[in-house]
Design brief:
The chain is mainly alpha-helical. It is built from seven helices and three strands; from the N terminus they run E-E-E-H-H-H-H-H-H-H. It folds into two domains: 41 residues, no CATH class; 94 residues, DNA polymerase, domain 1, CATH 1.10.150.
């Protein structure tokens, strides 16, 4: 029995619907009528976006754990010398509690649970608030880069405290 590689990015024909389809991040993306110039252009655009996003599916499919490493790499290139070291402590509870959760499902209640974890660890209010803001910034970056819908970041911004 041969196993197919689920990461194959082939332009395929979905016979029941007549649509062109490509599988990215384990999810089928329909591109329009198979064989048309528009569907081939959509295929090229989706593949380019997928590769530019570090092989994370655009708007959905990315779990929280898949966001942390690219975000920390981004911070290494843009932040002050000591900031990435300080920021690496913030995602630990995020990874522990919500690492396997889809990023679209992470919401205000999840952020409040992480904040509660920081408080229970005995951190000062300033440190708790700073780390919560760091997590919100992670989702802001992810919304700007594409793997997370902007509504997720907007919902997290609504959390007071």
């Amino acid at each position: 029995m041969s196993a197919r590689n689920p990461r194959t990015l082939s332009y395929r024909h979905h016979r029941p619907s007549g649509q062109a389809v490509v599988t990215l991040g384990g999810r089928d993306r329909y591109l329009g009528p198979h064989g048309t110039a528009a569907s081939k252009a959509a295929y090229d655009r989706l593949i380019a976006e997928w590769l530019a996003n570090g092989r994370i599916s655009h708007h959905g499919g990315a779990v929280v754990a898949e966001l942390i490493t690219p975000y920390l790499a981004y911070l290494d290139t843009t932040c002050k010398a000591n900031e990435p070291a300080n920021i690496t402590a913030a995602p630990n509870p995020l990874l522990d509690l919500y690492g396997a959760v889809e990023s679209e499902e992470f919401g205000p209640k999840s952020l409040k649970a992480i904040r509660r974890r920081f408080i229970d660890a005995g951190l000062a209010r300033f440190t708790v608030n700073k780390r919560v803001r760091m997590i919100v910034r992670l989702f802001k970056w992810a919304a700007a880069e594409g793997p997370v819908a902007p509504a997720v970041h907007q919902a997290l911004e609504a959390v007071e405290g």
